[in-house]
Amino acid sequence: MSAYTLPDLKPPDAVPTQTALLIANGDLRDTANAVCWAAQQELEADAAKAFATHGWSIRRAHGERETDAGPHGFINSQACGREVFATIHPDAPLVVAEAVWQYSHHLLPGLLRHRGPILILANWSGTWPGLVGALNLRGSLTKAGREYALLWGEDFADEGFLAKLKQWCETGRIEHDESHVKAVAVNDIPQAERELGEALAAELQNKHAIMGVFDEGCMGMFNAIIPDHLLHPTGVFKERLSQSALYYAMTQVPDAEAQAVRDWYDAQGIDFKTGSDEATELTDAQVFEQCKMYIAAARLADDFGCDLIGIQYQQGLKDLAPASDLVEGTLNCSVRPPVKRADGSVIREGEPITHFNEVDECAGLDGLITQRVWSAMGMQADNTLHDLRWGDPDASGTTNEYVWVFEISGSVPPTHFAEGWKGASSERQPPMYFRLGGGTVKGISKAGEIVWSRIYVEGDALHMDIGRGKAIDLPLEETQRRWDSTTPQWPIMHGVTYGVSRDQMMAKHQSNHIQVVYADDADTADRALAAKAAMALAMGIKVNRCGD
User: Fold this and answer.
1) Residues 463-479: what's their mean pLDDT?
2) Engineered SS bond to 130: which of 99, 175, 190, 212, CB 3.0-4.6 Å?
3) What is the DSSP string of 378-419?
4) Taken in order 199, 181, 385, 112, is the CA torsion positive or negative?
5) What domains can you pick out in the chain, each with its CATH number?
6) How far apart are CA 287 and CA 364, in angstroms?
């Protein structure tokens, strides 16, 4: 009889009762992890005190590591996550504590096999975007069908926070208020808007749309990938492209064409905040490369007949070229530099080329639906995703309403600014994220009625949460406070959601991203929301109306 060496499958030791293991997931880039480590340590200390009020203790499941960028205690790769979960008993209560942006795929294999209760615990800070990372991880776990609880707070000693934490300690679950959510049925939609939405969905069945994807899976966003078997019935199919193709196409753009784009920008009045230090400042050379990327992206979209495209934005391409922010915002804008085909005709003149930042395919599908509905209604279809970055009461006294900071470095069209391109500036992306720099499209979103939404995967089906809101004007001093509390290089929208409180939004929203588009007025926005919901339902997407 042969003798074989069998693997040791004995599970790690169980943890004592009323003990939770804590893990901290982070960025792939240790430059970011090292900068954020102090904020994470502060969160973990506050969490330990909060658990202690209920007689529980927290034990860290992994230690600090030394990196070239500095020490930190984050899981910084899927391989690292694999090693950490090999030491965790599968039934242990598990706390994923987040004070920073994180790559969900570092943890997913371990979390999906874990049997014990899982709590995603986030701070409430614009500077340290743990809540953004937590929302991405929550959307990823929802897509994967893994139960979890989510808890957030500005003050972990607050009575309301502690009451929610007690629920988890006692039951492994937390109940949140979702009374603002109502499923939409076809018969709920007025006839005219229902007919429009259904006709637009039928058009996709007759002539499908092509979603150009420049490499899937940006920054570990499992929730941002729509499986083909769910996407195809909607009438949308992917054209899988490579960032290497985009980079090569950039090298084929003549300098004269790139200079013409830069001249167009200058004529429109965008203010490029340039300097001479490539390592820390935006330079003219970086902008010049972004001009080439814009031309290359427009031509590739045209060559492949793509109705929309998504550039991965960070991983891979960031090591070859400046950031794609300026490119993305320009593509999403109906007022943009002309790009010509070989025959001299202009590619989609006067129209946006819908772009979804960070190849978030859910945002891309949402943007496509928006573009079709808004265009059919005769409205400007320029739309974008934002990070649901942070929120705070208005410190200026302008409004008593809760004001969200919607913010994203890429994809915002300058038509969202009151003065268009003249109201835009471009600043260098922070070096800890983009070694080769590149300019953003910075500006303040104008006041107006908006429709917001999010498409996501749950229960092996596509869903859309949709609601109404407005962007408001705040004094420049208050705007600057909010910029200084988040990322001042990025465009900002002061968002107010109708009938959805801060905690209700956090209780239900299934992504770090939120899609927004302007409407002409409140009545038109209501009708456009109805038509968009009708189109989504006819495409096989389950729709929830959120708020008033």
Assistant:
1) 98
2) 99
3) TS---EEEEEEEEEEE-SSSS-SSEEEEEE-SS---GGGBTT
4) negative
5) 19-171 (3.40.50.10940), 186-546 (3.20.14.10)
6) 25
